[in-house]
Amino acid sequence: MNLTQAFTENNSIRLGLTAEDWKEAVYLSVQPLIESGAVTEEYYHAIIESTEQHGPYYILMPGMAMPHARPEAGVQRDAFSLVTLTKPVQFSDGKDVQVLLALAATSSKIHTSVAIPQIIALFELENSIERLSNAKTPEEVLAMVEESKNSPYLEGLDLDS
């Protein structure tokens, strides 16, 4: 599973959306995956429930969150979506998020060994949050994903399968 393929196959890049609160932002990030059949509606509810129990464990850096839940909570196939918001939303821990990259992984192994390195590579790019927030087209996001492929985090990964 690679980001470019997942974004393209699931038509899951949505830019410049508006959310009233963190729950709506999470829903907007999961919606493309529900629409494409990668996850069921249950997946969204599992993320909300888990967030309410454990806090927003998926805020990975200032401005960026990676909403996800357990594979058995409605994941049909591995997929990613990326959503940007016109205005950040605040989570329960007081952190503001403007970029959400939802992850649906069919196993913990996919999550750890394939998804996380690609996400790190993308967000290690200089000014990644600002660049993604300012992106106007999915092609701009895909160009950043392409740029991130030179990252040392991706050495040895087979992203073509």
Question: Could you characterize the architecture of this molecule?
Answer:
The mean pLDDT is 93. By secondary structure, this protein is α/β, with parallel strands linked by helices. The longest helix has 16 residues, at 108-123. Strand 4 (79-90) and strand 5 (96-104) form a beta hairpin. It is built from 6 helices and 5 strands; from the N terminus they run αβααββββααα. Helices cover 43% and strands 20% of the residues. A 5-stranded mixed beta sheet has the order 1-4-5-3-2.
Order of helices and strands: HEHHEEEEHHH
How far from one another are the termini?
6 Å
What is the residue-averaged pLDDT?
93
Strand order of the largest sheet: 1-4-5-3-2
Approximately how much beta-strand content do the residues carry? 15-25%
Helix/strand-derived category reads alpha/beta
Rg, rounded, reads: 14 Å
How would the global form be characterised?
Answer: globular
Largest sheet descriptor: 5 strands, mixed
Name the poorly predicted regions: none
Helical run tally: 6
InterPro entries: Ascorbate-PTS_EIIA_comp, PTrfase/Anion_transptr, PTS_EIIA_type-2_dom
Protein name: Ascorbate-specific PTS system EIIA component
Organism: Streptococcus loxodontisalivarius
Keywords: Cytoplasm, Kinase, Phosphoprotein, Phosphotransferase system, Transferase, Transport
